[in-house]
């Protein structure tokens, strides 16, 4: 319960005058019967005014005949709208865990013993969701029947209860000056009836990440702070209230040892603030200490990066053709080499006018394959065809492989200039060669350092935290500049990042921007203290601000959408990254060549030792 003056402000009390509103309920001759009818009539007439179906929970010491009369009246006149349940005057009968608390109306009589203790034990149920009917009948007759209601000035005990703004407590008393409610009129919802706080001061807590933000509360310097700061002022204006702001350096995170929160949530938990003036993410551990009201800020915190070159994630030298084309090309080379070997050997065997000394060395398959491979690479043919068949075969190879070479070369040029779309998940980012960092904010540090999901934890340990123990938490401007330089993923609030990108990037640099979700959070919520009496008025006001377009207008001013790629991609020069697969192939080729050379030298020396000199030279 709050100790503020709000606890002594009787805004929510609805005083019904028994003498006027209920005096004509019945006029039987028996005074005892009249008193009983008055109690029943009071409850019946009030239940008629309530706008929706309810469950009446009667916690009184009334005798069985009076309870039966109440049950008979309620079930007969309000059978379709209200159910009734009786219980002892004990706190355990209160609807602590009823999922339909908003439909419960609790009836108590201050004339019954222990009712005062029951009301004190009700805690937040007294001012949150549950409606109360409080009677205080005067037992002055010899028979113990009520002879009337207490005077409306005699509510000293009720004045000690937490009667806050959200209470719906109906207290029956005698006050001849009270006007009678018109017949047939129903009570509107509390949040609808009580929209005037009469300049009551609300307390709002604002998260301030940088001291310089104090000088930019009314401009567009910091979107998250500015938007909710303006919405909080709009809430106070709509409710005819004033607001006092306090500033903290964190949204608030739980201390496992004390189970207390720091920052903004800590102020709400300790009743130092009524409103959480900065939107915050929805997490299950915070549900027990705050109430989430409405999504006010379309904040998205993602990894933002420029799509790297295709050669950065793939081997562009194998991408021009599909696998089936590669298989056909290799098959063609092998088939052409075999046919060329057969044709050359046939030439040598049936050469006309050639002696054995002019026939030359016998054609081998390896020579034919090497010749076709050289033709594939447009290096020409070192074999001189002598017959029409061999010339036709070599000519066919030249033509076919020329088209393949032209197609391959054209695709290579296009692929080197193309951005990669392979990084689509956090796993892709983890295995890629992109560097990563995050904006230096409290929530980024908390969520990165407390991740338990394997991929997210590995991303923090391998990309964010360096081997020397430092961490890549950067200021906004430095992180955006790293994005512009390329090959860098920066975890940042997207709207703020895109605003700075629109102001600092060249048009061609705005192309290829990509995002990756890391936190998996829905839009941030506006929050208040748990079971706050201001919960419903503030929530309804936030919905109105959204429906009237005020919230949308502020969002449009603050949040920049993803920049459009207007200028197109500029020419990107070829770098080592682009030709790296070719260099690797060349290196392995050199290594294989040297290895074969060494093997041949060793083989020659070994054969020279094993065979006689004359036999060796004859070989």
From TrEMBL:
Quote the subcellular location field of this record.
Cell membrane
Record-linked InterPro entries: Insect_Ionotropic_Sensory_Rcpt, Iontro_rcpt_C
Q: Which GO terms describe its cellular component?
A: plasma membrane
Main localization is: membrane
Pfam families on file? Lig_chan
> Which is an annotated GO molecular function term of this record?
ligand-gated monoatomic ion channel activity
According to the entry, every stretch annotated as the Ionotropic glutamate receptor C-terminal domain falls at 323-470
Where does the chain cross the membrane? 324-344, 393-416, 579-603
Question: What's a single GO BP term from this record?
Answer: detection of stimulus involved in sensory perception
Q: Does the keyword Endoplasmic reticulum apply?
A: no
Q: Which domain of life is it from?
A: Eukaryota
Q: Where is the signal peptide?
A: 1-25
- Specify the protein's topology with respect to the membrane: Multi-pass membrane protein
This protein's UniProt keywords: Cell membrane, Glycoprotein, Membrane, Receptor, Signal, Transmembrane, Transmembrane helix
The family annotation for this protein states: Belongs to the glutamate-gated ion channel (TC 1.A.10.1) family.
Q: What is this protein called?
A: Ionotropic glutamate receptor C-terminal domain-containing protein
Organism of origin: Anopheles atroparvus
């Amino acid at each position: 319960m709050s100790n503020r003056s709000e606890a002594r402000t009787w805004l929510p009390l609805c005083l019904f005058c028994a003498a006027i509103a209920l005096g004509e309920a019945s006029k039987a001759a028996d005074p005892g019967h009249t008193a009983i009818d008055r109690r029943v009539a009071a409850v019946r007439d009030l239940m008629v005014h309530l706008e929706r179906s309810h469950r009446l929970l009667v916690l009184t010491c009334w005798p069985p005949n009076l309870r039966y009369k109440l049950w008979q009246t309620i079930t007969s006149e309000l059978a379709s709208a209200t159910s009734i349940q009786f219980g002892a005057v004990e706190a355990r009968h209160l609807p602590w865990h009823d999922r339909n608390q908003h439909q419960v109306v609790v009836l108590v009589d201050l004339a019954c013993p222990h009712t005062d203790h029951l009301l004190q034990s009700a805690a937040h149920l007294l001012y949150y969701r549950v409606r109360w009917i409080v009677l205080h009948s005067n037992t002055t007759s010899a028979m113990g029947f009520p002879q009337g209601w207490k005077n409306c000035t005699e509510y000293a005990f009720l004045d000690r209860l937490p009667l806050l703004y959200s209470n719906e407590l109906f207290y029956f008393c005698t006050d001849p000056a009270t006007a009678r409610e018109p017949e047939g009129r129903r009570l509107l919802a509390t949040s609808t009836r009580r929209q005037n706080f009469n300049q009551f001061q609300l307390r709002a807590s604002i998260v301030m990440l940088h001291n310089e933000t104090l000088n930019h509360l009314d401009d567009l310097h910091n979107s998250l702070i500015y938007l909710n700061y303006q919405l909080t002022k709009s809430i106070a204006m709509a409710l005819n209230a004033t607001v006092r702001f306090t500033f903290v350096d964190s949204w608030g995170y739980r201390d496992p040892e004390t189970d207390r929160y720091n920052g903004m949530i800590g102020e709400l938990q300790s009743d130092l603030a009524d409103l959480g003036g900065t939107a915050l993410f929805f997490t299950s551990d915070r549900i027990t200490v705050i109430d989430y009201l409405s999504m006010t800020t379309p904040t998205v915190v993602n990894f933002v990066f420029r799509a790297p070159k295709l050669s950065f994630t793939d081997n562009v030298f194998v991408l021009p053709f599909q696998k089936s084309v590669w298989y056909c090309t290799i098959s063609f080379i092998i088939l052409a080499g075999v046919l060329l070997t057969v044709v050359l050997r046939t030439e040598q065997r049936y050469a006309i006018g050639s002696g054995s000394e002019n026939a030359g060395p016998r054609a081998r398959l390896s020579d034919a394959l090497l010749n076709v491979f050289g033709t594939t690479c447009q290096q020409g043919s070192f074999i001189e065809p002598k017959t029409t068949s061999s010339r036709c075969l070599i000519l066919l190879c030249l033509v076919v492989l020329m088209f393949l070479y032209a197609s391959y070369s054209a695709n290579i040029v296009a692929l080197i200039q193309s951005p990669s779309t392979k990084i689509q998940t956090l796993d892709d980012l983890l295995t890629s060669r992109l560097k990563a960092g995050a904006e230096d904010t409290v929530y980024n540090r908390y969520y990165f350092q407390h991740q338990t999901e394997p991929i997210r934890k590995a991303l923090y340990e391998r990309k964010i935290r360096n081997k020397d123990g430092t961490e890549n938490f950067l200021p906004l401007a430095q992180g955006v500049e790293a994005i512009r330089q390329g090959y860098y993923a920066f975890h940042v609030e997207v709207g703020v990042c895109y605003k700075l990108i629109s102001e600092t990037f060249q048009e061609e640099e705005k192309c290829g921007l990509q995002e990756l979700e890391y936190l998996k959070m829905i839009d941030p919520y506006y929050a208040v203290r748990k079971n706050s009496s201001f919960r419903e008025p503030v929530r309804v006001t936030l919905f109105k601000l959204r429906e009237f377009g005020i919230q949308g207008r502020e969002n449009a001013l603050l949040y920049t959408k993803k920049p459009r790629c207007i200028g197109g991609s500029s020419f990107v020069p070829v770098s080592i990254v682009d030709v790296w697969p070719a260099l690797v192939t060349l290196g392995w080729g050199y290594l294989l060549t040297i290895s074969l050379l060494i093997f041949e030298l060793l083989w020659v020396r070994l054969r020279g030792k094993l065979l006689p000199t004359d036999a060796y030279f004859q070989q």
